């Protein structure tokens, strides 16, 4: 959507491009925005292999299909790691990089309750979304996270099914929480945005980030957690738009 320089937006684990719809509409005032569903998510194909090399290759292939030689990137969480992998392996395809609330490091497993709750659901026997929500509540307390997860539902007969390939995501979970590596640093302009109440980005991550992304700057959004683009949408948009347009604004 939109017109202007290309901008690719990549969502996080259990998400889809729809999570970025409101931000994309704003950013489309200055950019041609490409919203991509990761493999095994949203409307994208399902595949047994799922790691950052494969997901980065998916992005490059999709850019090729749309004749996009280079783009700015915004990536959140898993999508942030994918964007970082693209920048490290194909730096010529990335003009500027925004990474939202994730570091390039490996994380300890922390989605066990979500997986347990999702696998416990017998979706074919549930006819109302409220019934799905009620059953999931015993595993996932936060109503906002439940609402986020239930965006993956699709109607199948009188019950529901998942848009996402939940089994493949679970089998590849170790890859998803794994770290990002590259033979050479990405030297382009890079911005890391942290939600102030989120613990995904720590002070101890700074050295590892700077080693891979030496032209890095950072912003923290007060009152936001792991989803600052939705929790503090106006503030996030201003920060991201200013950074992404800095080069074009400076051009004669």
Q: Globular, elongated, flat, extended or rod-shaped: what is the shape? A: globular
Q: How many separate structural domains? A: 2
Binned strand content: 15-25%
Helical stretch tally? 11
What strand order characterises the main sheet?
2-1-3-4-7-8
Radius of gyration: 18 Å
The pLDDT mean sits at 96
State the CATH architecture of the largest domain.
3-Layer(aba) Sandwich
Order of helices and strands: EHEHEHEHHHEEHHEHEHH
CATH superfamily of the largest domain: Alpha/Beta hydrolase fold, catalytic domain
Major β-sheet profile: 6 strands, parallel
CATH class of the largest domain, anyone? Alpha Beta
Structural class designation = alpha/beta
CATH structural fold name of the largest domain: Rossmann fold
> How many beta strands in the DSSP annotation?
8
Uncertain residue ranges: none
Termini distance?
A: 26 Å
Classify the helix fraction into a percent range: 25-40%
